[in-house]
Amino acid sequence: MAASGSQDNDEDLNGDSGSEASSIFQSGSVISTVPDRHGFLGGTQYSPEPRQIVPPEVILRRERKWLRMLSKWNNFMSTNYRKVRERCRKGIPPSVRPRAWLYLCGGKLLMDENPHLYEELVSRPGDPKYIEDIRKDLHRQFPHHEMFVENAPGQQELFQVLKAYSILNSKVGYCQAQAPIAAFLLMHMPAVQAFWCLVAVCDKYLVGYYSQGMETLQRDGDILFALLKRVSPVAYKHLKKQKIEPILYMTEWFLCVYTRTLPWESILRVWDMFLCEGVKVVFKVGLVLLKGCLGRAALTKRCPSMYETLQELRNPPHQLMEEEPLVQQVHRLNLSEEDFEYEHQRQVVRRKSKDQAPPPSTMNGND
Fold first, then answer.
1. Rounded CA gap, 86 and 90, in Å?
2. Model confidence over 271-310: pLDDT tens digits?
3. How many C-beta atoms lie closer than 10 Å to residue 59's C-beta?
4. How many helices (H) and strands (E) would you count in the chain?
5. What contacts 24+ positions apart, CB below 8 Å, involve 301-308?
6. Which helix (H) or strand (E) holds 30?
7. In which element (H, E) is residue 17 found?
8. pLDDT tens digits, residue range 177-230?
């Protein structure tokens, strides 16, 4: 997507500017020389317009509350988790977000328990197979962000974080979907903190997601589909009728925790909730997208075949993904902890019985 160099520079893109250029043409895209507030120089995430949904005085008040909370973190988490959750749902102020994420996911605890381990892992050579795969993927991660444009220092940090994880958890090693998560974390915090947050996300929040075979992801896809039946029968029937397996539309959503799907402000809000409440937030966002794309007969009529349906789910309407509407829809979903637990247990039992079922007989009655 082409993006202008600044909000007043539309003429510059057409070559009519008499002023200093604030954009350049690179790899078929217009790239600004001035990053937006999140560090993007172009691409679909670039948004140069100033954005102030929450008044400054409210942000300041929330910052003070968060700083107070972070100074007594263990006490708050053990005695007043509901308050922490409520504040995460409102959105963590940008100035304290990196520190809050580090505490929420347990990365701070891991870092304190393992001082200097990250530096030690970075100094090791790593498995050549994973190293080669990591190097191949570096240039694909947010190439329009100031940290990851060609020759920017972010690519080396990203390489080191992913290599260190592949050594620490050699059983999982490296999975391509870890790269956007690691890059996303590096945009918000130093490499050592991003590493320990990545460890927490991969080993605590998304356990089994990055293992070969993806059995855990497939199981969670089935849980998502079962929950959709409760949330939006219309969308559920449409996907069932077209025999579209969940793995075809939810893989990138879940593996990358929406870092490659949603507008930037929405990703930040989803992660505020995800790191506080866990993987059920990933399910809820997926259900909101499914319902928003396919939850009415008028919408399903536009998708007569699997092709149109998957196109719709891969490119949800922008208004559905905007920060406030998306977060409100997530909160409005009428799903309890018991609902999630019930469907989880049901799918575990279903898969176990499927694995234990004897293979179909190949005998035809003749010896």
1. 6
2. 999 999 999 999 999 999 999 999 999 999 999 999 999 9
3. 16
4. 21, 2
5. 303/238, 305/242, 306/242, 306/243, 306/244
6. strand 29-32
7. none
8. 999 999 999 999 999 999 999 999 999 999 999 988 889 999 999 999 999 999
